[in-house]
């Protein structure tokens, strides 16, 4: 439905689109925080978005008509994206009808900038490379499945849904210094696949699912698996080095590692990923890591609260960042046509050698 407001111009009823892209290879569609239903008020000089969540500064919801460019239009879905030429503001709206969508498009400027054309080219290239190099990540769901299945088996053996059962967790490989460092080194890796309760499992698997798919796509399945296992191993070794008397377990060291590898890839290959993906995904990964470390440190200061093994988190993060930086390759099919397993072997050997040296200082 379209109405005409005598004092303010033409008013269109709309619904606001998502605040985040549905996929990593899509441009950021709506960064003003507007959600739900609202209105687009159009005058000769401005286009103003109202209603919805009404988030942020009201001035950011008003676009000068002369500053609008690179307008997007999907006629099949009645979707319009309005962008400002001078900053990063974008608003994604569903129009009430195709008639409304075409009417608004007639009013909006038709300018397209060279910068926007280059941005779209980058996204198209990124989409093509994702499709060619990693149509479906395999390692990430496999790792999640292994953790979930093992948790179910442990429940059958008597482990609690939300409580620690020392007997069962030690049986399945929890990292406990007096056992690990006296002939049972297999616990260093086995402990990364068991969890102390369903909340512990759910948090780690959600983080792995949320970031693992993109990270596996960027590195390739074999290198991603290597980074994950090296980070898991590093987390366990650093945990034992820091406190050889504690019992620890969980995939968080490995998860920290793959997020560290993601940031390392962005640092080494920034031109291979669209700028908006670098910004949004990089900030999201950094915020998650910082929040988790801060939250864990705060919990450890509280009496009678669950202990969080931040040493394992930091160990996994460092191993993932180092191995990720060394294993990052150009995100292009031509650059990956020739396999270089020697590089993976060298990185694995180097990280493991460093961990062996660190482990030599552990006293259990």
Give a structural overview:
- By secondary structure, the chain is α+β, with helices and mostly antiparallel strands.
- It folds into 2 domains: 2-112, PH-domain like, CATH 2.30.29; 135-359, Rhomboid-like fold (Up-down Bundle).
- The chain has 12 helices and 10 strands.
- It has helices at 98-107, 114-133, 139-156, 166-172, 177-180, 187-190, 198-219, 221-242, 252-268, 275-301, 310-327, 341-359, and strands spanning 2-5, 9-16, 37-42, 46-51, 62-64, 68-74, 79-84, 90-95, 175-176, 247-248.
- Strands 1, 2, 3, 4, 5, 6, 7 and 8 form an 8-stranded antiparallel β-sheet that branches. Strands 9-10 form a two-stranded antiparallel ribbon.
- A hairpin with a 3-residue loop joins strand 1 and strand 2.
- Helix 3 (139-156) runs antiparallel to helix 7 (198-219), helix 7 (198-219) crosses helix 8 (221-242) and helix 9 (252-268) packs parallel to helix 11.
- The protein is elongated.
- The termini are far apart.
